[in-house]
Amino acid sequence: MALSDAQFEQYQRDGYVVVEDCLDGAVVEAVTDRIESYVRNDREETEFERMLEPDAAGDALGDADPVRKFEGIGMVREDDVFADLVADENVLDVVRQLQGPNLSLLRSAAMLKPPRVGSEKKYHQDAAYYPIHPMDHVTVWMALDQATTENGCMQVVPGAHRDGLLGHEAIEYDTDITIAEGDYGPDDAVALPMEPGDVLFQHCLLPHYTAPNETDDWRRAYIAAYMRNRSRFTDPDPPEWVDSYHVSGETFPGCV
Fold first, then answer.
1. Secondary structure, 3-state, 145-176
2. Is the pLDDT of residue 207 over 70?
3. Are strands 16-19 and 199-203 parallel, antiparallel or unpaired?
4. Is 65 in contact with 218 (CB distance < 8 Å)?
5. Contact 215, 150 (CB under 8 A)
6. Is residue 221's pLDDT more than 90?
């Protein structure tokens, strides 16, 4: 699956593009079922982390945990379903157009908004989490459920990736940050409702936001961030979540 010329131009101009029906329905079902097995504790993660909704009671959803996210490259090292997803050729075809043939995974995460208790994620840039050069990795946001404005679909600020890295501040903990230098509001953002299997390809400097889930249904998505294999981590003592996983192509000495 390849981007059209118009889609490629949109990514360069606006910092994002949505590819509809990028993932096969069977893939979406397999990934959703596997996430469900972790949420319901039928499977136990050992090489990645889970975070619960901080303000939700543990029994808010009955026999399912109110999981906000599963996070870590260990997801693809530990679980073949996630490993197959990040190597999906429809996804990689697009990423190679944007990044070239030599790719590594920078991030793997299941981003969940549980029904009624799924909280907002304030405006931020993904690049703010990662001391990496060049700062142009691609965040791939894969819809596993229907994503709507009511349940917390992605909202982006078109073209703002060209403003570079903005200052961020922590809200409650190191991995909960928000943009401190800019004042983005509803009038700045474009909402991106998506169907299961639609995939958003987003520049790492693009400011974005998701609202709370106010519905009775889950809003689940999977994130895979890809970087060039010539990328370098610029901090000799990077945060503990900074990791890499070879996906395709050549590797280069001194690089990721």
1. CCECCCCCCEEECCCHHHHCCCCEEECCCCCC
2. yes
3. antiparallel
4. no
5. yes
6. yes
**99: region left, alpha or beta (phi > 0 left; psi from -120 to 50 alpha):** alpha
Q: How far apart are CA 209 and CA 5, in angstroms?
A: 27
Cβ(219)–Cβ(196) below 8 Å: no
Decide: residue 235, CB within 10 A, 0-12 exposed, 13-18 middle, 19+ buried. Answer: exposed
3-state SS string for 203-249: ECCCCEEECCCCCCCCEEEEEEEEEECCCEECCCCCCCCCCCEEEEC
Dihedral, CA of residue 136, residue 227, residue 183 and residue 70, to nearest 10: 180
The C-alpha atoms of residue 72 and residue 131 are separated, in whole angstroms, by: 16
| 172-187 per-residue burial string, b: 16 or more CB within 10 A, e: under 16 | eeeeebbbeebebeee
Joined together, the tokens standing for residue 76 give: 């693809």
Helix or strand (DSSP H, E) at 74: helix 74-78
Give the pLDDT band of residue 184 (cuts 50, 70, 90).
confident
Helix (H) or strand (E) holding 18: strand 16-19
pLDDT for position 71: 96
The answer to whether 217 and 115 are in contact (CB under 8 A) is: yes
Does the pTM surpass 0.85? The reply is: yes
